[in-house]
What does this fold into?
Amino acid sequence: MRFTPEALSDALPSDITLRRYWIAFSGGVDSLVLLHALAALHEHLDVPQLGVVHVNHGLSPKAGQWADRCGRQCAELSLPLTLCEVNATPAAGESPEAAARNARYRALAGLIEPGDCLLTAHHQDDQAETLLLQLLRGAGPKGLAAMPMLSAFSRGWHARPLLDFRRESLVAYAEVNALSWLEDDSNVDTHFERNFLRHEILPRLKQHFPALANTLSRSARRCAEATEILQAQARADRHPLQLSADTLSVKGLRALGEVRARNVLHDWIHARALPVPSEAQLQALWRSVIGAARDAVPLVRWPGAEARRYRDVLYVMRPLVDFDAALQCEWDLSAPLALPGLGQLRALTAVGTGVSRDCLAGKRLSVRFRRGGERLCVAGREGRHSLKKLFQEAAVPPWQRNRIPLVFAGDELVAVSGHWVACSAVVEAGQEGILFQLEVSTA
It folds into this structure.
């Protein structure tokens, strides 16, 4: 497809309401063509504002010169340039490519406000490279869908209007319009995976398959369609299994069978903004957690998340943070009590429920945690019961039991946060009481 400003206009988002486009401008030929064509269209766009952003990764000795040149080119087109400087140093185990990409998109996300749309210059050849990279990494349909034309991003949108254009058509436009672009030396370093494919593999494939970029892009679109169907099926399957926002029925997952259950788990974990496990980790979750005996308390971990099971309930959550179970804090109830590794314990005023304020008057209050052997005479029940038995009856998972604050008045256990009040401390009808509530830390 021949690239022209008019063809670009047809590729811009038309079914969302926007107030501003942000053009991600590196100074390379692709983003320069996008910038130049948008400047030519500016008066005819349905958005009142057009902004340009250049991200300086600081990885090249020429980075400062590139930023200056981008500024001059924007000035020639009477477009404002925002310069973002980022730290793209890779973390342990992170590739330089991933570190630069993650730093870049964090900076770009910070600019996007409601009604904004980020425009990037990814084209059809980029799409082909992305699909091949994902295929070589063993990705499923979602990964093979590669890059979407339009997706939600930060508080707005991210569009890639050049995905249907070949790179050669963009270069042809740049040459016809006498555009001068930057060449990043790192783009020819074949130690990077994408550059290796771009310079060593794809040219040879194109000798035998001239329409390679177009056909691979078509495959990516079909994978995107398959992904939509899988996601719809996952949500339909999940609905009757959902016990709470954080839990699913193990029995229900087993009834689905491994393939559909793994599809549900993948979609559910992603929807909860948790790191999605690898295929091997999903298989371990299926075998070792869902497939475990009912009285087992199995655990499977992966970076940033973990899966646990208690009875028929599957829990997937962020890893539990270590805390000192021997902690003992005195508390005057005047402010929330910080419990390191857990969150904040709050004393909420209530009427006719909770612990009686009169019962607490003049007594030293403290917060402790289970050490074993604690017993409680629960309001509304006869006799004293061990906390272990009470937790079992209430189906409180074992890993939560030692993390539940216990409130003592002197040496007497008067409340188990979020659960029970001692019969000796319960408030009478119409009187003011206190409910103890743990606000769990999400850090």
